[in-house]
């Protein structure tokens, strides 16, 4: 796993009250894992946009919105009570992308452009 962000960087960007002190280390760890799972290039110095994206993801992780338990294998649920029934069908892999995650992905977009190679002719 690559370390893209630190607690000090997240505190600097979001203010020290972005989450409780006892949640910061785990949230930053989760953000670094999330970033490491993306096909980002190797950086000599992590760009500010990537650090900002990491901070946004750390905030999401601190609220429990990043890596949640998921139910797989279920494509339909129905409930009936007192003659009234409700039914929902959904994709087993569907999940809500949080606003912070969407913002982070937008910040990372320039670095996630797969298939583009810089060509330098001598």
Describe the fold and architecture:
- This protein has a domain at 7-70 and 98-111.
- Helices cover 40% and strands 10% of the residues.
- It has helices spanning 7-14, 21-36, 48-62, 99-108, and strands at residues 76-81, 84-89.
- A hairpin with a 2-residue loop joins β1 and β2.
- The longest helix is centred in the first third of the chain and has 16 residues, at 21-36.
- The mean pLDDT is 85.
What's the short version?
This protein has four helices and two strands, in the order H-H-H-E-E-H. By secondary structure, the chain is mainly alpha-helical.
Q: What topology emerges from the helices and strands here?
A:
Elements: H1 7-14, H2 21-36, H3 48-62, E1 76-81, E2 84-89, H4 99-108
Helix pairs in contact: 1-3, 2-3, 3-4
Mean pLDDT: 85
The helix content, as a percent range, equals 40-55%
CA distance, first residue to last residue: 35 Å
Strand proportion: 5-15%
Spans of at least 5 consecutive residues with low confidence: none
The main sheet orders its strands as 1-2
Supply the number of helical segments.
Answer: 4
Structural class, by secondary structure, is mainly alpha
């Amino acid at each position: 796993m690559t370390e893209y962000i630190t607690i000090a960087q997240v505190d600097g960007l979001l203010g020290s009250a972005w989450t409780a002190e006892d949640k910061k280390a785990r949230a930053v760890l989760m953000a670094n894992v999330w970033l490491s799972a993306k096909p980002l290039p190797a950086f000599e110095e992590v760009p500010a946009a990537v650090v900002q994206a990491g901070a946004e993801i750390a905030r999401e992780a601190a609220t429990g919105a990043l890596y949640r338990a998921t139910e797989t294998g279920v494509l339909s649920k129905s409930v009936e009570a007192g003659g009234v029934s409700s039914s929902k069908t959904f994709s087993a892999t569907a999940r809500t992308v949080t606003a912070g995650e969407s913002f982070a992905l937008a910040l990372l977009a320039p670095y996630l452009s797969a298939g583009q190679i810089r060509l330098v002719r001598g």
